[in-house]
Prior knowledge:
Elements: E1 6-10, E2 16-22, E3 24-31, H1 37-52, E4 61-65, H2 71-87, E5 92-95, H3 97-102, E6 111-119, E7 122-131, E8 134-145, E9 157-160, H4 164-175, E10 179-180, H5 190-202, H6 223-228
Domain Gcp-like: 37-143
GO molecular function, one term: transferase activity
Protein name: tRNA (Adenosine(37)-N6)-threonylcarbamoyltransferase complex dimerization subunit type 1 TsaB
Amino acid sequence: MESPLVLAIETSGKTGGIALFKETLLAEISLLSKESYSTIIFKSFPFLEKNLKFSLEDVDYYAIDVGPGSFTGLRIGLSILKGFNLVFPKPVIPVSSLEVLATNFVNYPGNIVSLVDAYSKEIFLASYKWENFYLKSIISPLCIPLKDLPLYVNTPSLFLSETLEKWKDFLKENLKSLFLEPPFSPHLSASLVAKLAYIKLKYGVAELKDAETLLPLYLKPSEAERKSGLKITW
């Protein structure tokens, strides 16, 4: 059976982009400006099609980081996905940004704690452990006050975040030997979204969704929702 071609989208973190993956990474375009995500991603397709000799029709699966993360970025990412899906409908493999962070260290033997900044002295947190390429969930994604984080850690854990420096002193002071610092700074990227989706497909644990009904994983109301008292839905 031929390996599937995965088109991945990442717009939840500091950088955004798209990637093509088929057993290995074929191409990735990374972007720094959220304002230009949709424009540049759509404009990049002729370049990818010309240089890789592929079309959107050739894609077998879409993969996307559904959050938690930037509210604006997540909405843009889903809009891009739905645009692609209007042209060529494909099954979607949603992954969380916290899983993507853990994919920086595939098959790390110990416990992993992934963190994303939720601002207002809060964090998005999840805990995982790799078991033969299966990313086992220990703590499902949730939003908690930063001060409560030590309550969720009872074993030495590798802490992964794009903004780890922001909390490093707090983690060292409150967790002592339970805080393990990564050897390099982890990041969110379309290539890691694609890699994780491919692993899930290969080991039969991919959860397939429809692009039109897929929702972002916000975990907390946006600033606009808190001020207005209304809930924004798709």
